[in-house]
Structure prediction request, 514 residues.
Amino acid sequence: MSGTNHTLELVKNGPAIVLVEPQLGENIGMVARAMANFGLADLRLVNPRDGWPSEKARAAASRADHIIDAVSVFATLDEAIGDLNHVYATTARQRDMIKPVLTPREASIEMHQLGDEGRNIGILFGRERWGLENDEVSVAEKIITFPVNPAFASLNIAQAVLLVAYEWMNCETKASELHFERKQPIPAERKTLTAFLDYLENALDEAHYFHPPAKRDRMRMNLHNIFVHAELQELEIHTLHGVIAALERRWMKRSSG
Amino acid sequence: MSGTNHTLELVKNGPAIVLVEPQLGENIGMVARAMANFGLADLRLVNPRDGWPSEKARAAASRADHIIDAVSVFATLDEAIGDLNHVYATTARQRDMIKPVLTPREASIEMHQLGDEGRNIGILFGRERWGLENDEVSVAEKIITFPVNPAFASLNIAQAVLLVAYEWMNCETKASELHFERKQPIPAERKTLTAFLDYLENALDEAHYFHPPAKRDRMRMNLHNIFVHAELQELEIHTLHGVIAALERRWMKRSSG
Prediction:
């Protein structure tokens, strides 16, 4: 797989992540890393408290240098969203505003549709301490809120970006394109299992396992059930064959020695 | 809204989060915070590098004190998963093991079903630097892998926990909606399986099964994988214990007779 091309393909039409007055360079870096994990590339900062560039941000980005290098910095929110067609605001708490409220999953479906139509999209994230001001939320058409445990709702900014980016990349419509290789186990052909069970029963007969004789059929069936239920694969059955054979050989060596 | 009751309700049947040899207290704290965000409560540490308790962990947890206070610490992975019926391992890269591979979303659907049936579930997360060892992955029935951008796949441990917890809490297909009757077998608690595997290995050692010695670890891991994959129940394991014991006794009789 050619990683670089894949990246370029994934970032196509992805939303811009707009951090409004971020306070800590470390958080900006962790945001960049989360974006890289899920194929987003356009990171915009509005008036970062500690200035830009930031070595702390670069260190925390864990080699997401392509995102750090491409960061754009703006003096005002209006400038940062100037080229966007659609703006979403993320909020942790209820706002006294009448705007549609979406989950990250719902928003990602919508953003894919808009992106496919060539629209420019951005998502606003507020300061670490107190989020977005009401007048900043007001520039957004819609609000994204995170479905967290109401008893413990505070999400770190990088985690909020992570969830949005994760949903954007794993949106149902895209999921099929991302299929990593999966190998589901295939149970062995039954003749392999039967041969193993015959071998095991023979060993157990010689070891006088099946007693009293009246219980033999019941015990045999129990054993069969265990190995059928286990859905073992060819290789696994061969290994168990070796296990029983090892225990057999040991006996044979002793009795002939 | 009564926050506390809500929390209690949410954590019912949630999976345990098992961190294997975590290195940094900060990361343990951020994991606790992510768990609190999404209603998980059972955090287990296997042999944390910098010991426990950790003030750095508590600080990074941002007031998820109920989780930090309830952390349990274990010397070995086997002890940490002793009371669990189902174990998942999270991995970032492809492993040379034949186990089912799930996305966090697929796993969360399954975990809700299992949790509703009263099973104890745990998810393993590896060290920050190099993840889980192969023999640690081998105790898991299934693998959870994160659908990240293949060109930039490194997820921080707290982010990995965040995504799993987020999917667990926001699972769309809650088990209650799946209306078919399931009376599925319950895998034994892991301590039963561990005791059986110890017994089997001992018998095989005496039978000189593990040779050449260089292959011992690999052969041991293969055996573990087989019996983990089989998802055996308590009674089934007892039966297999009897099978091995019968083969043992046979040898002892012969060699003493």
